[in-house]
Amino acid sequence: MTLNGLTIVVPNSRFLENEVINWSHGNPLSRIDVPVGVAYGSAIETVRQALLEAAQDCPMTLETPAPQVWFQAFGASSLDFALLVWIADPRQQFYLRSELNYRIHRSLERHGIEIPFPQQDLHLRSPHLDRLADTLERYLGGHGPILGPHQPHPQASPQNAAQNPPQNNPQNNPQNNPQNTAQNAPSPLAPGRRNAKPTERP
Fold this sequence. Notes:
The protein is an alpha+beta fold. The chain has a domain at 22-110: Alpha-Beta Plaits. The protein is built from 6 helices and 3 strands. It has a 3-stranded antiparallel β-sheet, with helices on one face.
């Protein structure tokens, strides 16, 4: 009979080939290990105190043997601890784990200890981009910023082009403007053509 109320029939061959775990054979006292990870930089003595307070606050844990806190490893994202407690009824182990987790979380928050989550720092390096940046620096002479792919050059701005037109553009020469040419053309009634005879019509 399992803790979920299921009956499992084990063949006799399993008893001969594999080991069998019996939580209550001989002595019902059982130890439960609860892993806990805290952030790097946490005061380990404060972590130890917070975990022991969580274990002592749970009425299902035994005072003898007393709860213990083990510093197990320096993990990839956390300092790994284990809270070891003893219980008298192994069938309550899953419920005890849940109650301990509730109390551990509250105790760590009360002591200001952070529970981390897995995270990684990614550094990207490309020799092609480094060479391109050096080339642009030499091209600009070190006087201008490196322009992004969508950032126009200041000299190519339409406003700058309108304020500073090129001097060699023929359209900017007043003599080449058709309107100025028409205004400066001699009029038929100008003084130099007063003696011209009108054209006779038949």
